[in-house]
Amino acid sequence: MMMNNKITLVTNNPLLLNSDQPFDIVEEEDCIKVIAKCRDLIHQGAKLVTHPLAGSIKPWETPFRSVLLDCNHTELDMSALEMIESATQMYQHQLKGVTVPVLTEQSLTDYQVIDKELMNSAVKSLYIV
Hints:
With about 130 residues, this protein is α+β, with helices and mostly antiparallel strands. The protein contains four helices and four strands; from the N terminus they run βαβαββαα.
């Protein structure tokens, strides 16, 4: 069972900001800033609990991203750092030259729900509740 006293959710998903979860929530502006904040926390010793590119939706196709980190540690986790750097490169590479489509309110809501469900599933499977 995972300790929940220093689990942090970094997200730009409004559906998760007011959720009744037993962990800290850090709000970021967009997906790139979510990944950057995760990188910063990893440099401080945090370990990834969920993959920064979780789900089958390509990073450039969804405007919402949420990542759980275990902040109970102080040593740099090189594996987590490599994973977050890879996610950063994926975003930078895939978004270069891509025109991001304007999404309808319904599409935005759908992507928020998908991201929330991914997090809910992760929380349940990791016994963070």
